[in-house]
Amino acid sequence: MKIKRRQPFTHKLLKAVAIGGLVIIATSNPYAGLKIIDRIVQRKKWRDFYRSLYVLRRRGLVDVEQNHDGTYSVSVTHVGQKYVARYDLEILEISRPKRWDGVWRICLFDIPAVKKHARWALLGKLKELGFVMMQKSVWAHPFPCREELAVVTHAFEVEPYVQFHEAYDISHEGKLRRDFEKRNGIVLKRG
């Protein structure tokens, strides 16, 4: 997976808390309990750290509770977890190898009508990632993208309705190849 742009400090902090679970911050020693985010915070001023924490709390992305011993417990809310997943989805990009291996990655889906918003979101993301339509619910991409597709289907909660296949021989491959090259401005070179 490739990341398009740099993540702001507030998002890195939220992601670190989401990965680490519950984080305890001691008021007398700000480094206590922050082993997971120590590297993130090393170059930042503590005022920036606490400002970011305040912003996350105000937006409802983290819960901050004071403990009896004067420390604070920080945990990610359900809304915060969804935000982390959605933000990661926004910066998702499929890596482009120098040479194409000649394999087409096919995404097939049959999403029920009750999830029509998820269907439209999936279609939009497939187009954004550079997939080309073969048929109404069949989209293709020439580069490895299984992990990226798994992230997308998980974020839109449509995993059971989506299939991933690799095709080594496709009829009308020339048209598919031209469509991909035209849409993405990339010339496919076999390796």
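Next protein, fold it too.
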Amino acid sequence: MPRMTAKIVMVAVVLLTAGAASFGAEETHHFSYSGATGPAKWGSLEPDYSACALGKTQSPIDIKEDAAKPADLPPIRFDYKPVTLKMIDNGHTIEINYEPGSFITVGDKRYELLRFHFHKPSEEKINGKSADMVAHLVHRSADGQLAVVAVLLQSGPINPLIRTLWAHLPHLKEKGTETVFDTVSINAADLLPQDRGYYTYGGSLTTPPCSEGVTWFVLKGRTAISADEIARFARLYPMNARPVQALNGRQVEVSR
């Protein structure tokens, strides 16, 4: 009888632990792109998400070309290197973590590439129109400032980098768990368009906690991605774009 009681206790502990793990996973993904946990509700989901509702410099935005101020902006110097593929399906998008050593330099400011991920359609709009998708390349400077390079993706020929990424999607068994593909090398430079002129403005993260103080560089050129590659992403995430946010007097600059 004591042995039976011990077994019952062990089963109960396992069930409770599994329940706690499931609850933690739900908490990690405590927002969505529609319904009761959609963008209109983000600001009230968690105390740390208040900027999503109250912030005055939020992203994404609708960039109006005729309102953007031409400026003598420094070019973005890209220094991206090949790395081993490390990929996560985090419940909101497909994200690729980047090893240290790749960076951009804008003027005298250097930002290390941390990761990149995708949205469908593009979150930022140009003259009221979204691109088919967008890649957001997230960087951080030595003093902790974030900068995001947005690469608009438009339907066209097959994109070799995207094809490589999507070929490994079935291996992402658990959302939130990083999968490392030791035999696969990628280079974020393969996402970049030839035209690297850009729009820039001060904004925020586009997902909770919607932290502000983020510098945005939206490239004017676009990168091709095939219709099949767009459809493949859409099977996982049909729509994962936050609506555009009010400018609130911000000035968007555009490189000459």
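About the second fold: The two ends are 82 Å apart (CA to CA).
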